[in-house]
Design a protein that fits this description.
Number of helices of chain A: 20
Mean pLDDT of chain B: 88
Structural class of chain B: mainly alpha
CATH class of the largest domain in chain A: Alpha Beta
Oligomer: heterodimer
Strand content of chain B: under 5%
Number of domains of chain A: 4
CATH class of chain B: Mainly Alpha
CATH superfamily of the largest domain in chain A: P-loop containing nucleotide triphosphate hydrolases
Helix content of chain A: 25-40%
Number of helices of chain B: 13
């Protein structure tokens, strides 16, 4: 999609707009950035590329005055500057689009833009003039923004445009974009890139932070790769290849399949090797007849027997049937609206969608953490709606939550305690209410080994583990209970590539064992790499279904943006469940 | 009911509501910046005792003495608020703990009582008292005259302050920044607004207003000092801010509603209505409980007007 050749001609030679030399930043002994050099020229888009935790965001937060570097020098237009606060950064013409938007939800777009600005009316606000200027900027850069709208009324894409307008309003000459595409649909990403190229053509310097190779190669003029706080190298995007970049990012070559899954190049590599695929029944209308009687006990028990025997029972009755589910969100409005779906044993169903379309509420309702206002959730005949997490677990649900630190582990409990959280009542681990420490230890050691959880000891508090290892810990706990249905929300968000690949393998392994796997992910690449069927969620309902092989990113992206698919027959497979 | 009784109820509602307006405005400013100040009751008591003491000590024309007393009362409240600001903004102590500690520290049987004893003003009858000023000679107009044009200067001051705060919040840049700081300190910081300074200034100004509200008891309502004479007004002021959805105009109305409840017993008795006085004196507190309980359910859920960062310390380097 990004076939525009980088306009290297526009990049101005001479003194760079920004030079960062030997930037070092430590947090409580952990080095986030270690002597990193980085520079940006006027008119170029310079990408900071690397895994989560490589030090990209920290480096830019140093530049924006959120962090004070422990060592290093920053030069703007050749002269050394000291940036102690965001106010200093703004004064030096630096604008930053943060990953989590810096907007005041209760204020209007114009008020948000005016924050921190001088006013020609002295102490008074001047909403009229600000609005006018916003309209001018919107027209110049094709950034559709209504100055009078309140932030909470805007979509994520619109909020991002407000952030860009904020920076432009302040005449930023250097714009930092911290993972700006993470929250956007593919179409919105294309629009954003158009805006960014236009800004570069205007002579602004842009820093683009990303870990998605495809985007990086399509947009950048130059790419600097960071790994574990070190600068691995800087190279022009024109001659770079994805293999080269990924190798620089992770420090070694990744197997082709992992590479495909982790970097979003799903279209270029075979989806799955045949041996890897546990032969789920082809999704679509053909399986519909089977889903008609999900509660029939006979069929359910047959499916169970088949599942235990090791063969895959995708053609049998669905294990998880959600019907006409409506769930209220935190704001009081319905977040899930009459949603229906079915998950069979031995398949991975992926729910794609832009965040905030009811995915979290759906997951919490299935897990028993949120009471639906209507509809039913049947797990092999057991009604989960209106129940509680214990009932869901007893029925055979494994749940890996989106907010790992909040909902997945008790951060101050040890690794062992967290591994045992849901099973402490099992006779194997407790007798008369007292825990059997020997048994527990053996069980936990086994899990830590089996799931490759990197922890110094079983007694280490969970909060000291990296995101990837916490996710492995939760997966270990949930999978050790041999669930019938596994619900995983955001399986690999914020997790390093190697751990993400490992978790993807584990999910495929569960599918091969006949477990019904439902993943909810905002990362379309991940859904496309893992799922046998993709359901696109929009405004609380499934707007359409896609098969990963047959559907293009663009058609799924359209659905994510709320455009209904044209062929209604395809939608039948979920709508009639 | 006759018209005189209604006017009497309104006039006394204003009298009893005025300290609530002052202290409530102060709390509103602090909370708009994201700082919950539960020390209002203590700050009011310190203002009350300080104001009374200063007015007893100074000689000179009455109005000069009273103005100085009011300034000193505000300063006493501000000083207390400075402690709260330091603890909750700089040291990031839990704001509830810090506020409660200050109220206990300064409250009944605390610093304000001690000061009253040391200064020996316990049994004294005040020399100076703020009296009603008949504005433009309009106080004689029936019904609206006594309500609008025959009040003491404190009342006129409180009306001016309500208008000023409303204008400040919605029409000035600093007011806009203040709202941004209370809603999303991180966004405000990213836009170059000094979150710490905004929080300090508004907490301290809030404390000054609480001190002024306390001084109203000893300089206007009755020129005497007794331990704990504010009798929970500080708590009512905090409830009032929630009741008013953090808006100055509604705060004024709410304060007079609470004031009416506080004074209803006396007023009705004075007009010969027989009811147990305990019933009436419990009304404002009952109302406070109802408001706070209501706020913690529906309101808190829908977050009507609650500054999103209320009670949450801001740390730039986190996250």
């Amino acid at each position: 999609m990004n076939d525009t050749t980088p306009a290297t001609a526009r990049i101005r030679d001479g003194v760079p707009l920004l030079e960062m030399r030997g930037i070092t930043k430590r947090f409580a002994g952990v080095v986030a950035d270690d002597g990193v050099d980085f520079d940006v020229r006027a008119g170029e888009i310079h990408t900071l590329f690397g895994e989560n935790g490589a030090g990209k965001s920290t480096l830019m937060r140093v530049l924006y005055g959120f962090h004070h570097p422990d060592a290093g020098e920053i030069r703007i237009n050749g002269s050394p500057v000291s940036i102690a606060s965001p106010a200093d950064a703004i004064r030096h013409g630096i604008g930053m689009i943060h990953q989590h938007f810096m907007l005041v939800n209760t204020l209007s777009v114009a008020d948000n833009v005016a924050l921190g600005l001088r006013s020609s009316r002295g102490p008074l606000t001047e909403p009229g003039r600000v609005s006018e200027r916003i309209r001018e900027l919107s027209a110049t850069y094709h950034l559709q923004v209504d100055p009078q709208a309140l932030i909470w009324q805007l979509s994520v894409g619109e909020r991002q445009r407000v952030e860009i307008v904020k920076a432009l309003y302040r005449n930023a000459t250097l714009l930092i974009l911290d993972e700006p595409t993470a929250v956007l649909t593919p179409q919105e990403v294309d629009d954003l890139f158009t805006v960014l190229r236009r800004m570069a053509e205007d002579g602004k310097g842009l820093v683009f932070i990303s870990h998605k190779v495809r985007e990086v190669l399509g947009l950048s003029d130059r790419i600097t790769v960071l790994r574990a706080g070190h600068r691995i190298g800087t190279l022009p995007a024109a001659g770079a290849t994805r293999d080269q970049l990924v190798q620089m990012m992770v420090g070694h070559a990744l197997p082709a399949r992992e590479l495909a899954a982790e970097t979003g190049f799903t279209a270029e590599t075979p989806k799955r090797a045949p041996a890897d695929r546990p032969e789920p029944a082809p999704p679509g209308p053909g399986t519909l007849a089977d889903t008609g009687t999900p509660t029939a006990p006979g069929i359910g028990s047959v499916a169970r027997g088949v599942g235990r025997a090791g063969t895959v029972a995708a053609a049998g009755a669905p294990r998880l049937v959600v019907r006409d589910l409506t769930v209220r969100g935190d704001r009081g409005a319905d977040a899930v609206r009459g949603l229906s779906l079915a998950v069979h044993g031995g398949e991975i169903v992926g729910i794609a969608g832009v965040s905030g379309n009811g995915q979290r509420e759906l997951a919490e309702a299935i897990a028993g953490l949120r009471r639906p206002s209507s509809g039913s959730i049947l797990l092999e005949g057991t009604e989960l709606a209106g129940g509680n997490p214990a009932r869901a677990r007893l029925a055979g649900l494994g749940y890996v939550p989106e907010e790992r630190m909040r909902d997945g582990v008790v951060p101050d409990f040890s690794v062992a305690e967290n591994l045992l959280l849901v099973d402490s009542h099992e006779p194997a681990f407790s007798r008369l209410g007292f825990l059997r420490s020997g048994e527990i230890r053996r069980h936990c050691e086994e899990l830590v080994r089996a799931f490759d959880i990197r922890t110094p000891t079983l007694e280490a508090p969970a909060r000291t583990l990296s995101g990837g290892n916490i996710q492995k810990l939760i997966m270990a706990r949930e999978l050790s209970r041999e669930p019938r249905v596994l619900l995983v929300a955001q399986p690999t968000r914020g997790i390093d590539v190697a751990a993400a690949a490992y978790i993807h393998d584990r999910l495929r392994e569960q599918r091969a064992r006949g477990v019904g796997v439902l993943i909810i992910s905002e990362d379309l690449d991940e859904v496309m790499a893992l799922a046998d069927r993709i359901l696109v969620m929009y405004e609380g309902a499934i707007i359409g279904e896609a098969a990963p092989g047959a559907s293009t990113r663009e058609s799924i992206g359209l659905m994510m943006a709320g455009v209904r698919p044209e062929a209604p027959a395809d939608a039948g497979s979920w709508a009639t469940v | 009911m006759n018209v005189d009784l209604i006017v009497a109820v309104i006039v006394s509602a204003i009298a009893y509501g005025t300290p609530l307006v002052l202290a409530g405005l102060g709390e509103l400013l602090a909370e708009r910046s994201g700082v919950l100040n539960l020390g209002v009751e203590g700050m009011m008591l310190m203002g009350a005792v300080t104001g009374f003491f200063v007015s007893q000590q100074l000689g000179g024309p009455g109005w000069v003495v009273l103005i100085i007393a009011m300034i000193m009362a505000a300063a006493a409240g501000a000083l207390m608020a400075l402690i709260h600001a330091f603890l909750s903004i700089t040291v990031r102590v839990n704001q509830i703990v810090s506020g409660l500690a200050l109220t206990i520290f300064a409250g009944m049987a605390g610093l304000s009582s001690y000061a009253g004893q040391v200064w020996g003003i316990g049994g004294q009858h005040g020399v100076h008292q703020l009296t009603r000023v008949d504005l433009f000679g309009l106080g004689e107009i029936p019904v609206i005259g006594p309500i609008l044009f025959d009040q003491d200067p404190f009342v006129y001051l409180s009306w001016g302050l309500v208008a000023l705060v409303a204008w400040y919040l919605y029409r000035t840049r600093t007011g806009l920044y203040l709202r941004a700081v209370g809603e999303s300190p991180r966004s405000a910081d990213a836009m170059g607004i000094n979150v710490t300074r905004y929080r300090y200034v508004h907490t301290i100004v809030g404390g000054a207003l609480a001190g002024l509200g306390g001084a109203y008891f000893t300089l206007a309502i009755a020129p005497i000092w007794t331990d704990g004479l504010t009798a929970g007004s500080g708590w009512i002021a905090i409830a009032l801010v929630i009741f008013a959805f953090w808006r100055p105009d509604l705060l004024l109305l709410g304060a007079y509603l609470f004031g009416a409840l506080s004074s209803l017993g006396f007023t009705l008795q004075a007009h010969g209505v027989q009811m147990p006085s305990e019933f009436f004196s419990s009304l404002p507190y009952l109302m406070t409980v109802v408001v706070l309980a209501g706020a913690s359910t529906t309101l808190a859920r829908r977050r009507i007007g609650t500054p999103a960062s209320l009670g949450v310390p801001y740390v730039r380097e986190e996250g």
